[in-house]
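User: Some background: our group keeps a shared notebook of sequences we're curious about, and every so often someone picks one and asks for a predicted structure to add to the entry. Today it's my turn. The entry only has the sequence so far, pasted here. Could you supply the structure so I can complete it?
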Amino acid sequence: MKISLVYFGKQGGGALLTENAFRFGRKAELVNRVFLSKQNELLSKFQDLSRISTVQIAHNLRSIGLVPFLFLIQVYKSLRWALKTREDLIIFVMPSPFDLVTMLIIKRVNSKIVFVCHEASAHQGERWPTKRAVNIRARLARLIITLSPGETLELSKSFPPRKIHELRHPIFSLTKAEQSPELNFGDLKSPLFIFIGRFKHYKGIGRLISAWDETLEGNLIIAGDGRFEYKLPKKALLINRWLSEGEIEYLMEKADVVVFPYTSASQSGLIPVARSKGKVIIASRLTGFVEQLAGYSNKTIWIDSQDTVSLRRALEDSLKISSSSGNSQEKEHEGGSMVAFLDSIRETWESKQTI
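Assistant: Of course. Here's the predicted structure to add to the notebook entry:
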């Protein structure tokens, strides 16, 4: 049985997960087709054009007047795509506010729907995905894939355990390293402490700023898109914009310590990347992170998810941990983690035909 993929978001982890799944899934002869938003920022990276379908989505307020027209086009294209993939296992890679109509149409033609649930409800300060939106999609799917124990537990309150299967987040394969123009490593001293991600309240950036000690060796780099509302401390560098894959790869390669000071989280797509590169990781002791970092205790420093003191201490302690041992035991051939992820979903489906 082949797999086909649906993702209607524009950017970020969902877009990257879909691109990796399509690219490596095609090579492994696991994936058939993919259905994307026309505004997907990684669209140019998707190859094998005959297997790609797109639809224009009203991602912003400027497109609001086109909603009725775009809705009709989406209905038409969704039906055509559903008929082409009626024999496939359909994976909704990450929920989007715009994918529900497509899921409903596909279900009329093909009930073999898998929903990958990254969060059972929105993070602190976030509006999407709502718990109701997640539950609707989970009810329409015949198999729910979770990526952390916390989300598995939460969904188990509303859905039978036989419908839920937990997998580890696959390792992203990023493009060739590309140095950000803001960086001049001649002016930066090792060790480099790096935070990468969108500037959202739940990611604990304010706590990281407060914990940063200017007397520490090395420099702190904070890189990502969003509103930065803090005074930048000395020996810290800010890159405040959306990063390319190549820039993320470059920062990950240069980092000595990667910091995840989140106040809430189910998992992070960047933890497997940092782990695969053998980096020292400072992370809040949250259920999803504990699962992702199982077996990596020699290079993990746990911090409390709320206070600043443990984070400041962790920054100091990380200097004592050597990060010169190269890639960790997670290393495998390019795309291997993604192929294993897709194969596990297919095998789980085949083993749960009584759902």
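Suggested note for the entry: Residues 67-84 form the longest helix (18 residues). Residues 323-329 have pLDDT under 50 and may be disordered.
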